[in-house]
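# nightly structure sweep
# worker-07 picked up a monomer target from the shared queue
# config: single-sequence mode, recycle default, output format = structure tokens
# input follows
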Amino acid sequence: MLLHRILAVNIFALAILAGSLFYLDGFRSRLTANAVLDAETQARTIADAMKVAEPAEQPWLIRQLGQDTRTRLRLYRRDGTRWMDSWDGAHPTYELRDPAREPLRKDIARMLDNALDAIVGAPASPDLVLPAVDRLNAWPEAGAALNGQRTTAMLRRAPEGTPYISAAAPVGTDSVLLLTRNARDIRAIVRDERMTLGFVLLAVIIVSVLLSLFLARTIALPLRRLARAAHRVRLGRAREVAVPLLPERRDEIGLLARALHDMTQSLRQRIDATEAFAADVTHELKNPLASLRSAVETLGKVKDPELQRQLLEVVHHDVARLDRLIVEIAEVSRLDAELSRARFEPVDLGAVIEAMLPHWERRAAERQVRIAFARPRSGSAVIPGDESRLARTIDNLVDNAISFSPQGGLVEIGAAEIDDQVVVTVEDEGPGVPAGKRAQIFDRFHSDRPAEEEFGRHSGLGLAIALATVEGHGGRILVEDRQGKSGARFVIRFPLPVAAP
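# output follows
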């Protein structure tokens, strides 16, 4: 859209300007050609009239025809002498002006004429040089007409820049008629047209300026506002930077504004999440480090072997806890980047769950918990994704379900295609998740474990990793009540890929 506007403005102005110049040159050329043709016709007609006129009538006739045609008529004999002139005893029908005596505006007009000729490449006519002695040999066209017995014309340039037209026609075999005129009317007409085109061009320039201002208002100003907002985001001095949305724009700039706004919001959310994550990591690392420091400091002071053994167990426990924290923190920090770069392949969730069943059954047997898996139809629970990440997510949910299940409890696992989704469910018969805590259990470092479980065995990042993995695959994870039964029900919903047309 914007490209069309810019091209339309530029091409329109340039086309008008170039077209007007060439039109004006063509218009002047046509006027000049017609004037030369008229001069030839008039010269032939007057020559024919002179042939049939009585000698006594010829001086009067040539003066009268010169006045009527606004030309100068001269007759030359073959010997070169001029023996008749329409200006003899009559007022001149045109004048040749001296450019040095004309006002400044005439000089400016001539400069415009010359500039026009240079731009369009108009052919230059020879300059008019009036002979000191008016004889036949001073006019080549007259000699050519007399010798060839045909009408001949020639175009010259008068001192003030006007076309000077001459046409010669034979009068019998011994004399020739020379017709000359200073075609000031042609220049006047061309200048009038040039003035008209000047007004048109002025109007075009004004329109172009207005269109440029319009484009500046619709393109440059919004871009400047967006640039200022982006600069403030880069500086990072303001907590919230208002990027203009430009909701009234439906073109590329509107799309850019909304994209920058969404990008800024996403960047701010990522920065907030990173800051919160850093604060949480600091807090979580302080506890085992404080315990480890206390045990190490005490270890050097006690002499009781039994107490030393207990302190060493604390050290080993805290080191293992720190190791788990660091590993899982590193995994959380790179999870989003890895998922954004991962090349998803078709993953059959039914087959993934079935492959992990033996591991879960051994883990459940330790707590006297049973595992039940409703196997889906082969190939019905297939989604594009990262198989190892998806397996880790489901394993985390099943491990939690086993941990919270009472002795003799049942953990039910399901995977099925329902409508346009693939749904994975993990249900247990434990205490369940209170409605007020269902959003908190997915927070990083949130840990609400069974009372009998060893402290520090879990980092509180498992469900946070599961949430990030599911959302990275375009899915949703939530906790529901088991209808008519106690326990928790975790549900993961993945959208089915859209089939290619």
